[in-house]
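Case study: Sensor histidine kinase/response regulator.
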Amino acid sequence: MHKRRILVIDDSEDIHKDFARLLCPPKAEDLDDLSQMEASLFGAPSSGGDSSEPIELDSAFQGQEGLAKVQEAQAAGRPYALVFLDYRMPPGWNGYETLRRLHQVAPSVPVVLCSAFSDFSWEKMDKEFAGAHVLKELRKPFDKGALQKLVRTLTEPGVS
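Here is what the predicted structure looks like once written out:
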């Protein structure tokens, strides 16, 4: 069984931790005693998107780093199945610039733009990236269900 590879490009370490917590919960053998009791009482947390394929989550904290990771993954024959991209990442590239460059090297990789702000134009994005495989939006703060549904929808073959 291979893993679904997902890249999170965001300047906030807390956002990376949220993605890991929501998509890659610990296995039962990795839980401490209190967490194991909680899981036995209330049920184990669902895995990343309720899929049979585990998720391999990778992180980049700036657009330039994210682009380099996508290029390395492509060259190694292990491309990402999905990229979550923050729109604001000072002092580096913003989400628009990062998306433009990602689209040049990996046009078929689905990208989900994540932001708490609405200071970018979806019309402009749709116009420029009309040929993009998938371009979606996920508002911060995001909920577990919406995140897992996007992962399921955008990474599993035959699910749309």
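For the exam, be able to explain this: The first helix runs from residue 13 to 23.
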